[in-house]
């Protein structure tokens, strides 16, 4: 039986790459042509590699421009000029044989003005933004809106009061966040509020930083808050300093600071990784009242275990709306809630629809097909 | 007024440009995103000088003023410049500070690796004390949390398999059947309760995988969807200039 | 102090001492452990295993020395697996302090399989600004990496000439301890559909299961246990397997402490409830 298979294997001729198609690579800024071909049929000898040849004329001047392993069936040529016509052929090679396809072309590459692969993003973004703008508009017109309190925010004043009573400083950390992290921008208004209170109570505020840009922003924020509270004399740039951008170097530095200064209140608001618990447990050990808020979900359990209050998920994004409760700011919160409700309805509906589609796939295949079309449309496509 | 409005206009303009560029592959929009990110990387690189300035100034002042612990500040400054010096030397002499035989690599292998690993390892100690303190069965939810935590811990190490095997050998058939039935309900591929595979099957590990990929991931997704929406709302507030609390007034 | 109060409030230093002993003893005594492979690790292994010889695997070193004890064994195991299967390896990374760990691994593993730099693997090094790099490779690798970490043009290595975008990469392996894993999944996986497997610290693994469950990544190697599982799959036990008894004992201790603490807590509450 094995011998027969071997025999078949040897007589089978190497089939040339079948139906080579060439087209402009879609959704790019030009300069690329996509060459694809069909894998040879089963009887053929396994192809080791495909070699792609290109020319600007259909009859002559072909040169090899690249190769693909035998398992691939397409090649992207991104060394072409836009607007110029090209011709291609593909050569399949085995250990000691080769076979060439017909010439395909002409094909011209050009840049696109719209990435059709991102239509889904455009549609969803438009719908979401429209809902937000509607709620902002409603708020501007003076429609009253109710938003629930965030317990963590109420705790800020208690924590600051405690630190003042004990005569201990306050520590604020953005963790390892960069200024490009939204959570850091969301935490800046909270730093401002805390700095204003610390100026009012004349308590020292320490802000050790892991990123120099964040440090600069923090210095500005604290300085201004002190000036606004009428105590610019209390501001000391040395208290808002840079430690290191190294994760555990930062944790060691902050731990040292906590043990030396024994702060009465600690605010962990920003981006944290595995160092979160190392720092928060040290804070707990010196008896500080601790408040945390991060968007890094893996660190939430640690903060919940070690801190007195933890703002979960997007609560920290919403915080600035509570600090300065302008109706327009609250409008965006309402919009967020409305979209959440829509999403819950949409996801539940889609899951039910998909399940029904699966159950009735034999008698009514159309349901499953509609479900597949919807989910395929939702998938990101580059 | 102008001082306040110009930054708002820059924020709005940049945001609109980048949003538009996301959908247009054609030049000059196509590579705008990576170009802006490159600019940020360049600016961020230079700001490290600010960090260096802040760090050295802070510690040199402590040394000069003989503040408590000034000796450690001196060590920090010396170590900082020694590292910089060794890095530069290795770069000139070996073309890369991380060449395997460069002196900087020696510093990396015998100081940075052990120091960083040690700091990370302290996490284990802090987890023990935090877990011991926080995991108290105050109510039904806390009890569930504790049970789940213990199951994940058992499932996460080879200990779980042998413990389960020992237990499965002494369990009566009806308990095994009940376990089998519950596991099947959770879509865990558990072998037949009468078979020997049932005993050798690592149920704690399978249950851990189920906990992680079903209830845990479901909660995680919920939080992440909320975060994404909160992020969009926050971005819109910043782009439209509604949120100005992060800026100077 | 009553007994139950003591049980519920054991001093931190005693807890730390107990943990140190529990970890240390198995490391000295080295008992044997049986390792069973979990599904996410098996799937990660399969993703590498089913690649045909000659395929390109890109390994991103996004961890630094702090998490090296957990993640470095994964790097060694995956490199061994790739070279055993004759796959081509490109190493890159987004942490300046992480790439030397790759150099250490690359000085160790390739000689075991007679693999040569430039022919079988290349280290293209680190470029700052990870999002820009991840998005940029979708268009052209050379926009960011014209040369390898030694400054040699990457096109001087034959297999690198045909590697231009994610299309030419069979599998992306991210070994991470932070947000880079999410970024790879969202930018490289989401926009360019590259198959991805992630190796990470035990702490970070829970956050990745949502991607795994939604088939956005092929497999997860999460934590030391998973590293040991991968080591057992390639039949080459290493430091992860060695660490398993210590980790088992430590987990056992934590569970024991939780039980003791809760007994103290319940007894204390009952007494208080009964008395008051």
Number of strand elements of chain C: 6
How many H/I helices of chain B?
Answer: 9
Derived structural class of chain B: mainly alpha
- Range of strand content of chain C: 5-15%
Low confidence ranges of chain C: none
Supply Rg of chain B: 29 Å
How would you describe this protein?
The complex is a heterotrimer of chains A (382), B (249) and C (276). By secondary structure, chain A is an alpha/beta fold. Chain A is built from 11 helices and 13 strands. Chain B is mostly helical. Helix content of chain B is 78%, strand content 0%. The longest helix of chain B has 37 residues, at 203-239. Chain B starts with a helix and ends in a 10-residue tail after the last helix. Chain C has 276 residues and is an alpha/beta fold. Chain C starts with a helix and ends with a helix. Chains in contact: A-B, A-C, B-C. Chains A and B meet through α2, α4, α5, α6 and α7 of A and α1, α2, α4 and α9 of B.
Short description, anyone?
Chain A has helices at residues 2-11, 119-140, 151-166, 182-201, 212-228, 247-261, 275-285, 300-306, 315-323, 327-359, 365-378; strands at 18-24, 33-38, 49-55, 63-69, 74-77, 85-93, 98-100, 104-108, 170-175, 205-206, 265-271, 289-294, 309-312. Chain A is of the alpha/beta class and 382 residues long.
Architecture blueprint of SSEs:
The complex is a heterotrimer of chains A (382), B (249) and C (276).
Chain A: H1 2-11, E1 18-24, E2 33-38, E3 49-55, E4 63-69, E5 74-77, E6 85-93, E7 98-100, E8 104-108, H2 119-140, H3 151-166, E9 170-175, H4 182-201, E10 205-206, H5 212-228, H6 247-261, E11 265-271, H7 275-285, E12 289-294, H8 300-306, E13 309-312, H9 315-323, H10 327-359, H11 365-378
Parallel strand pairs in A: 9-10, 9-11, 11-12, 12-13
Antiparallel strand pairs in A: 1-2, 2-5, 3-4, 3-6, 6-7, 6-8
Chain B: H1 2-23, H2 32-64, H3 70-94, H4 103-134, H5 140-155, H6 160-170, H7 173-185, H8 197-200, H9 203-239
Chain C: H1 3-8, H2 12-29, H3 39-49, E1 56-62, H4 68-84, E2 88-93, H5 99-108, E3 121-126, H6 130-137, E4 171-176, H7 180-192, E5 196-200, H8 209-213, E6 219-222, H9 223-233, H10 239-275
Parallel strand pairs in C: 1-2, 1-4, 2-3, 4-5, 5-6
Helix pairs in contact in C: 2-10, 4-5, 4-9, 6-7, 9-10
């Amino acid at each position: 039986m094995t011998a027969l298979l071997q025999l078949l294997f040897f007589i089978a001729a190497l089939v040339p790459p079948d139906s080579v198609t060439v087209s402009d690579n879609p959704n790019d800024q030009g300069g690329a042509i996509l060459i694809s071909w069909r894998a040879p049929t089963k009887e053929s000898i396994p192809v080791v590699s495909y070699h792609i040849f290109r020319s600007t004329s259909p009859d002559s001047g072909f040169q090899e421009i690249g190769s693909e392993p035998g398992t691939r069936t397409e090649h992207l040529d991104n060394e072409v000029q836009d607007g110029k016509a090209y011709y291609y052929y593909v050569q399949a090679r085995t250990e000691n044989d080769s076979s060439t396809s017909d010439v395909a072309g002409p094909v011209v590459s050009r840049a696109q003005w719209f990435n059709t692969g991102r239509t889904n993003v455009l549609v969803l973004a438009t719908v979401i933004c429209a809902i937000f703008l509607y709620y902002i508009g409603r708020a501007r017109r003076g429609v009253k809106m109710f938003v629930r309190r965030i317990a963590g925010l109420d705790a800020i004043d208690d924590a600051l009061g405690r630190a003042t009573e004990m005569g201990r400083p306050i520590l604020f950390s953005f963790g390892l966040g960069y200024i490009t992290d939204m959570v850091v921008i969301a935490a800046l208004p909270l730093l401002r509020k805390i700095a204003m209170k610390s100026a009012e109570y004349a308590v020292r505020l320490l802000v050790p930083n892991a990123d120099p840009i964040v440090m600069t922003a923090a210095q500005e924020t604290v300085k201004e808050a002190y000036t606004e509270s009428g105590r610019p004399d209390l501001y000391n740039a040395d208290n808002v300093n840079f430690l290191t951008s190294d994760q555990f170097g930062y944790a060691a530095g902050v731990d040292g600071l906590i043990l030396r200064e024994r702060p009465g209140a600690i605010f962990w608001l920003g981006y944290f990784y595995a160092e979160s618990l190392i720092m928060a447990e040290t804070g707990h050990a010196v008896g500080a009242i601790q408040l945390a808020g991060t968007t890094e979900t893996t660190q939430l359990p640690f903060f919940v275990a070690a801190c007195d209050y933890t703002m979960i998920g997007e609560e920290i994004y919403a915080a600035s709306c509570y600090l300065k409760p302008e109706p327009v700011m609250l409008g965006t919160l309402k919009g967020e809630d409305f979209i959440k409700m829509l999403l819950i309805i949409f996801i539940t509906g889609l899951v039910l629809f998909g399940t029904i589609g699966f159950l009735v796939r034999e008698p009514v295949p159309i349901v499953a097909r509609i479900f597949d079309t919807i989910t395929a449309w939702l998938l990101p496509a580059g | 007024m102008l001082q306040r409005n110009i930054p708002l206009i820059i924020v709005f303009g940049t945001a609109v440009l980048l949003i538009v560029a996301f959908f247009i592959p054609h030049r000059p929009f196509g590579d705008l995103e990576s170009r802006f990110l490159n600019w940020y990387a360049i600016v961020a690189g230079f700001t490290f000088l600010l960090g260096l300035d802040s760090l050295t100034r802070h510690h040199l002042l402590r040394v000069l003023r003989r503040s408590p612990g000034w000796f450690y500040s001196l060590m920090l400054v010396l170590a900082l410049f020694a590292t910089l010096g060794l890095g530069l030397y290795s770069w000139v002499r070996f073309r890369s500070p991380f060449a395997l035989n460069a002196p900087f690599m020696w510093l990396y292998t015998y100081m940075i690796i052990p120091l960083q690993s040690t700091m990370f390892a302290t996490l284990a100690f802090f987890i023990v004390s935090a877990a011991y303190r926080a995991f108290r069965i105050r109510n039904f939810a806390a009890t569930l949390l504790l049970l789940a935590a213990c199951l994940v811990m058992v499932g996460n190490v080879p200990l779980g398999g042998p413990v389960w095997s020992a237990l499965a050998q002494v369990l009566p058939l009806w308990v095994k059947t009940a376990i089998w039935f519950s596991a099947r309900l959770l879509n865990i591929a558990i072998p037949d309760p009468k078979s020997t595979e049932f005993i050798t099957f690592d149920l704690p590990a399978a249950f851990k995988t189920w906990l992680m990929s079903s209830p845990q991931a479901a909660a995680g997704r919920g939080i992440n969807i909320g975060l994404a929406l909160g992020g969009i709302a926050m971005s819109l507030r910043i782009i439209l200039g509604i949120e100005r609390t992060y800026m100077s007034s | 102090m009553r007994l139950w109060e003591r049980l519920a409030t054991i001093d931190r230093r005693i807890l730390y001492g107990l943990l140190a002993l529990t970890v240390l003893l198995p490391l000295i005594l080295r008992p044997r452990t049986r390792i069973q492979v979990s599904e996410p690790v098996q799937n990660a292994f399969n993703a590498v295993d089913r690649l045909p010889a000659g395929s390109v695997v890109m390994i991103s070193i996004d961890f630094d020395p702090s998490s090296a004890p957990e993640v470095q064994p994964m790097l060694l195991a995956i490199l061994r697996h790739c070279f055993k299967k004759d796959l081509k390896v490109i190493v890159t990374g987004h942490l300046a302090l992480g790439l030397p760990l790759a150099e250490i691994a690359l000085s160790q593993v390739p000689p075991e399989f007679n693999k040569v730099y430039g022919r079988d693997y290349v280290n293209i090094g680190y470029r700052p600004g990870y999002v820009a790099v991840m998005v940029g490779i979708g268009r052209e690798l050379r926009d960011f990496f014209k040369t390898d970490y030694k400054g040699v043009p990457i096109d001087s290595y034959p297999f690198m000439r045909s590697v231009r975008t994610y299309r030419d990469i069979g599998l992306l392996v991210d070994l991470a301890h932070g947000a880079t894993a999410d970024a790879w999944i969202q930018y490289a996986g989401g926009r360019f559909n590259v198959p991805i497997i992630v190796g990470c610290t035990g702490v970070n693994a829970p956050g990745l299961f949502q991607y795994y469950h939604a088939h956005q990544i092929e497999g997860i190697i999460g934590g030391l246990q998973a590293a040991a599982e991968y080591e057992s799959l390639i039949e080459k036990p290493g430091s992860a397997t060695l660490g398993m008894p210590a980790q088992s004992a430590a987990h056992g201790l934590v569970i024991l402490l939780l039980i003791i603490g809760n007994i103290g807590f319940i007894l204390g509450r009952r007494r208080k409830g009964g008395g008051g």
